[in-house]
């Protein structure tokens, strides 16, 4: 899947995006664990970040991240909390 990092998540990961291979049927929690292992500085951000899977909020970290139909790659965005004003 294609993982994109925004704002503080990109700073902590040191990159804006990457391809991440996970098993079919992987959950959001399993993806977060894989990202934490790749980028230890990202751990505090992942604890409070929102995830979007193909632009849909993933509120349950136990949810399975299913690839879209047609063999396309799933896109997951990691969004840290933002302050607005």
UniProtKB/TrEMBL annotation:
SUPFAM superfamilies named in the record: MoaD/ThiS (SSF54285)
Q: What is this protein called?
A: MoaD/ThiS family protein
Cross-referenced Gene3D superfamilies = 3.10.20.30
Which InterPro entries is this protein grouped with? Answer: Beta-grasp_dom_sf, Mopterin_synth/thiamin_S_b, ThiS/MoaD-like
């Amino acid at each position: 899947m294609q993982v994109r990092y925004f704002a503080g998540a990109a700073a902590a990961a040191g990159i804006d995006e990457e391809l991440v291979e996970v098993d079919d049927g992987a959950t959001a929690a399993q993806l977060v664990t894989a990202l934490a292992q790749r980028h230890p500085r990202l751990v505090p951000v992942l604890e409070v970040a929102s995830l979007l899977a193909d632009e849909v909020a993933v509120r349950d970290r136990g949810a399975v991240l299913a690839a879209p139909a047609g063999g396309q790659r799933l896109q997951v965005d990691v969004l840290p909390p933002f302050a607005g004003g």
